[in-house]
Amino acid sequence: MLTHIWFGFFAAAFLAAIYQWLVNDRGTIFSALMQSTFDMAALSVEISIGLIGVLCLWLGFFRIAENAGLIRVLSRFLEPLFMKLMPGVPKGHAAHGSMTMNMAANMLGLDNAATPMGLRAMQDLQSLNQQTDTASNAQILFLVLNTSSVTLLPVTIFLYRAQQGAAEPTAVFIPILLATSASTLAGLLAVAWVQKINLLNRVVLSYMTGFAVLLAALGSWLISQPAEQMSSSSALLGNLSLFAVIMLFLGAGWYQKNNIYDDFIEGAKQGFDVAVKLIPFLVAMLVAIGLLRASGVLSAVVWGLEYLFSAIGMNTDFVQALPTALMKPLSGSGARAMMLESMNTFGVDSFVATLSSIMQGSTETTFYVLAVYFGSVGIKHVRHAIGCALIADFAGITMAILAGYWFFH
Question: Given Cys at both, which of 103, 129, 188, 275 links 136, Cβ 3.0 to 4.6 Å?
Answer without folding.
Answer: 129
